[in-house]
Amino acid sequence: MKGDKGKMSRNNTIGIVGEITAPPELIVDAADWARKVYEVELTRMRPSGTEDTYILQYDGRAAGSKEMLERITEGAEIFCGGEIRSENVHDPKPEENRVKVFIFAEMIAVNDPPVEDQNEVTICGNICKPPSGRETKRRTRKGRRVTVTRLVVAVNTPTGAYYVPCVCWNEQAEKADDLKVGDYVEIYGRFQSRNFKKRIQGRKLPYLSTSYEVSVVRLEAESKEERTGEK
After folding, report:
1. Could you tell me where in the chain the CATH 2.40.50.140 domains are found?
2. What share of the chain is helix, strand, coil (3-state, %, to 5)?
């Protein structure tokens, strides 16, 4: 799906501000500058002080002109709008995930001066695997255990079908626990990265790996039966 810009879907949108922290890498070459596809590392700081790092892909059309395309470089602070995509990774390295989750930008603006901070995601689709929930060791201010539930949402768009990992906390996690495969959800939240230790059989020391997911702020759901009228 690289370079397939097409028409972005309203059921898969992201608007985010961040800083490019590595030189753009050309991953799809083309005679037309507007159809060349690049990949960069994008970072942003959460209000909590935690730094998120993302994979961002874009083509020349996202910049709008050759001049603007040249401004998308290491150190630039940008705003981009687009969608969250996923693709299978063939022969991944031990520290890599089998599914690559990234932002594909429909438009990019270099901030001069920077616009207000933004990280807004809308995902609408169907639950494609059973939710995975658990209690953590952390507690809320009221002393209750913090609960977390992870989901994978299948999102169909004009540019393809993508599988987007999502994480729900506390009240949203309780809602997510009741979901079943096939249920339709509308999710509003923020895109974030998460570092974790990945253990490989036969290796004593774990690899440090990174996953990407939508942190759910609000979840609305409709069961498969409610949508189809089946019982």
Report:
1. 12-119, 122-228
2. 10, 55, 35
What DSSP line would sit under 205-231, residue for residue? Answer: SPEEEEEEEEEEEEEEEE-HHHHH---
Domain 12-119 has CATH 2.40.50.140: yes
Tokens representing 195 are 């570092």
Residue in the structure block whose two tokens are 């083309």: 30
pLDDT tens per residue across span 132-166: 977 666 766 666 677 899 999 999 998 899 999 99
Phi-psi region of 172 (alpha: psi -120 to 50; beta: other; left: phi over 0): alpha
Question: Whose structure tokens read 């658990």?
Answer: 134
pTM for this structure? Answer: 0.86
Scored b (16 or more CB within 10 A) or e, 48-80 reads: eeeebbbbbbbbbbbbeeeeebeebeeebbbbb
As given in the structure block, the two tokens for residue 143 are 């002393």
As given in the structure block, the two tokens for residue 125 are 């689709």
Architecture in CATH of 122-228: Beta Barrel (2.40)
CA dist 147 and 175 (Å) reads 11
- How confident is the model over 74-114, as pLDDT tens digits? 999 999 999 999 999 887 776 677 899 999 999 999 987 77
Q: Is 188 helix (H, G, I), strand (E, B) or coil?
A: strand
On whether the CB atoms of residues 120 and 16 are closer than 8 A, the answer is: yes
Among the listed residues 190, 220, 55, the one whose alpha carbon sits nearest the alpha carbon of residue 124 = 220
